[in-house]
Amino acid sequence: MTTTSAFMLNVRLDNVAVVAIDVPGEKVNTLKAEFAAQVRAILKQIRENKALQGVVFISAKADNFIAGADINMIGHCQNAQEAETLARQGQQLMAEIQALPVPVIAAIHGACLGGGLEMALACHRRICTDDVKTVLGLPEVQLGLLPGSGGTQRLPRLVGVSTALDMILTGKQLRARQALKAGLVDDVVPQTILLEAAVELAKKERLAQRTLPVRERILAGPLGRALLFRLVRKKTAQKTQGNYPATERIIDVIETGLAQGSSSGYDAEARAFGELAMTPQSQALRAIFFASTEVKKDPGSDAPPGPLNSVGILGGGLMGGGIAWVTACKGGLPVRIKDINTQGINHALKYSWDLLETKVRRRHIKASERDKQLALISGSTDYRGFSHRDLVIEAVFEDLPLKQQMVAEVGAKLRCSHHFCLQYFFPADWRYCGECGQTGTGDWIALF
């Protein structure tokens, strides 16, 4: 193998092959289409070496296994057929890893996401470190996509359909102990012994099969599966309102694989991946991802940050109530809400009360903690209490003259020279986006 290869093979004296993953010139490992030939060359050597007892895939990066596939590959696809072909190529490569005649172990430290987890799922066993940097997940849904290299088929069979649906539909990332409890990994060890623990696991002649929990076994049956998918479809439709095709296709593909077999599931996965890659939703989400990545590269200003001790919110509707909840109950900052009537303020207070009361019922927090957090939120129908706010967020409904009036009014009340206007999506604790602008009346920075 050349020194520029991202995959390097080393056969130890105990006849265990160690494949080190190290993408040249990159801080993190990502899977690229051109790596397929490198991996296949290594797999060929492994198959031809009859003395090998096992194989271990491990990263040579400091705190990263594989962060996912290179999203630029999708951008280069001109149509759904090309994106589908890309998915089928990934599926074939993972199938070749899974078909190796000796035990194959993924030794995971750091981020193991997207295509990285799909590669780990193709291995026969997985072992990870107990480090806080170690997380595992399939976040493709956040880009308007689904896992395209077999993840929708292997994960349900490994951890159960209910757990798999939850992971893939939300894109949630599991930490080491969570992954162990879910059955996603077979062991959790300190980083210092990761390689040796993986080697010992690879030497075992027979790897015991994991038994799914009783709940997952029930849901795996025809009746349980039918009820589960009906419920998941209903809840998903309520959340997306039909505006997010990726979630619908994820459910379809997983159900197809379980009902008709893996072969049909892989075929459905590849076709769905190709179609989703061309949707405006996926294209927009990928554009946001790239823009966010560029923003992170900006070193920013050398000026020290100003104080942030209290926040004001204009508007107590759904958006204002959500922002108040995030700011007070998650950020721990006092919040003052301004609305045209007390009904709006009461609505915002009830929003936080309901969320906190749910936490109390589930015994996540005590009633005293609920009351303490709720006390951080207050309101008024005028601008009393706004003069010393370090940050004011406008959250009134979409009426431009009203927005302009309120911004002008609150601007006259504030002592600070810079104003930050954030526009959130609902629910407010999901994400916000923005761009910069400047008015002619002072140093304004507006994020819309």
From TrEMBL:
Domain 3-hydroxyacyl-CoA dehydrogenase NAD binding: 311-412
A Pfam family assignment: ECH_1
Reaction catalyzed: a (3S)-3-hydroxyacyl-CoA + NAD(+) = a 3-oxoacyl-CoA + NADH + H(+)
Pathway: Lipid metabolism; fatty acid beta-oxidation
Entry-linked InterPro entries: 3-OHacyl-CoA_DH_NAD-bd (IPR006176), ClpP/crotonase-like_dom_sf (IPR029045), Enoyl-CoA_hydra/iso (IPR001753), FA_oxidation_alpha_subunit (IPR050136), NAD(P)-bd_dom_sf (IPR036291)
Superkingdom to which the source organism belongs: Bacteria
Keywords in alphabetical order: Fatty acid metabolism, Isomerase, Lipid degradation, Lipid metabolism, Lyase, Multifunctional enzyme, NAD, Oxidoreductase
Coiled coil feature spans: none
Record carries keyword DNA damage: no
UniProt keyword Zinc present: no
GO biological process: fatty acid beta-oxidation
Cited SUPFAM superfamilies: ClpP/crotonase, NAD(P)-binding Rossmann-fold domains
GO MF terms held by the record: enoyl-CoA hydratase activity; isomerase activity; long-chain (3S)-3-hydroxyacyl-CoA dehydrogenase (NAD+) activity; NAD+ binding
EC number in record: 4.2.1.17
Family affiliation: In the N-terminal section; belongs to the enoyl-CoA hydratase/isomerase family. In the central section; belongs to the 3-hydroxyacyl-CoA dehydrogenase family.
Name the record gives this protein: enoyl-CoA hydratase
Originating gene: fadJ_1
